[in-house]
């Protein structure tokens, strides 16, 4: 039996134990008042004295990234994928069942926490938990935190795992989204119309590439996953739509790399007109 398999069995046993406590292990909702990112943005600059005077309450949720125990006090570090915050856990501050759930938590689990904000002696923004809600169990152990996920093959094949343990991967997704939004704004401001052209085409045209081939059962027709959208964009210009663009996926059945699986491109087309003065 491998170590990962043993850990999986232990986590499954913890999940079964949570269920025996009478806890719904797949709750439909959790009434969150704040995201972790919103809490950090709103209260990250406040001093310990300010928080102690205001005693702001919150209900937030996230994935457990660390569990630390110091005698009667314990801490959970939870994240919403962007920011992190601590939850302070004391047996005498939680309902009995909530504390029993805490003892069965593993790294990667999702929990909801209700309580008030304060700062610890090390000046960490923290939620003093008055209740703890089990939201979801992570049955597979996360990569060891100090070395992270280094295997490139796993990072690309299991993107969800890469996003959990490598914050820079999430930033790549965010930057890409902003770049695509900027490209759309640039074209929209210049009178281009965004369109969608067929993914499956009867002619693999518009570029020199080997296509993927599929079959349309109802029409009994051989079709090709597009290698380029140009032919259909040009048909739109023929139809009178003078400025069009498409941010699309093209599928070229030749070679594999991290940059071309599948390839993504922004294609535009215009109908050029000539004005002659006499």
Oligomeric form of this entry?
single chain
* Major sheet: 5 strands, mixed, barrel
Kindly state the percentage of residues in helix: 25-40%
Order of adjacent strands in the largest pleated sheet: 1-2-3-5-4
How far apart are the termini? 88 Å
Class of secondary structure makeup = alpha+beta
What fraction strand? 25-35%
Radius of gyration: 27 Å
| Helix-strand string | HHHEEEHEEHHHEEEEHEE
Summarize model confidence as the mean pLDDT. 87
General form: elongated
Regions with pLDDT < 50 over 5+ consecutive residues? 272-278
The number of E-state strands comes to 11
Question: What are the key terms here?
Answer:
278 residues, alpha+beta, 3-stranded mixed beta sheet, 8 helices, 30% helix, elongated
Task: Characterise the protein shown here.
With 278 residues, the protein is of the alpha+beta class. The protein has eight helices and eleven strands. The strands form three sheets. The protein has a five-stranded mixed barrel with strand order 1-2-3-5-4. Strands 6-10-11 form a three-stranded mixed β-sheet. A three-stranded antiparallel β-sheet has the order 7-9-8, with no helix packed on it. β2 and β3 form a beta hairpin. α6 crosses α7. The longest helix is centred in the middle third of the chain and has 22 residues. The termini are far apart. The C terminus is likely disordered.
């Amino acid at each position: 039996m491998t170590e990962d398999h043993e850990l999986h069995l232990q986590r499954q046993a913890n999940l079964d134990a949570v269920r025996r406590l009478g806890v719904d292990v797949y709750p439909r909702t959790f009434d969150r008042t704040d995201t972790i990112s919103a809490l950090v943005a709103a209260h990250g600059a406040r001093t310990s004295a300010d928080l102690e005077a205001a005693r702001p309450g919150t209900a937030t949720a996230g994935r457990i990234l660390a569990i630390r125990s110091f005698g009667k006090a314990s801490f959970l570090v939870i994240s919403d994928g962007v920011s992190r915050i601590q939850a302070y856990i004391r047996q005498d501050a939680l309902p009995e069942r909530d504390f029993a759930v805490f003892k069965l938590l593993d790294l990667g689990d999702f929990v909801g926490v209700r309580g008030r904000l304060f700062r610890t002696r090390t000046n960490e923004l923290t939620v003093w938990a008055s209740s703890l809600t089990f939201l979801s169990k992570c049955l597979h152990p996360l990569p060891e935190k100090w070395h992270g996920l280094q295997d490139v093959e796993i990072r690309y094949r299991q993107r969800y795992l890469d996003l959990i343990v490598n914050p820079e991967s999430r930033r790549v997704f965010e930057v890409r989204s902003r770049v695509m939004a900027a490209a759309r704004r640039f074209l929209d401001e210049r009178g281009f119309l965004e369109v969608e052209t067929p993914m499956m085409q009867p002619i693999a045209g518009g570029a020199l590439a080997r296509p993927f081939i599929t079959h349309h059962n109802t029409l009994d027709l051989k079709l090709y996953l597009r290698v380029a959208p140009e032919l259909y964009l040009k048909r739109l210009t023929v139809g009178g739509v003078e400025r069009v663009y498409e941010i699309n996926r093209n599928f070229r059945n030749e070679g594999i790399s991290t940059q071309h699986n599948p390839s993504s491109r922004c294609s535009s087309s215009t109908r050029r007109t000539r004005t002659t003065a006499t």
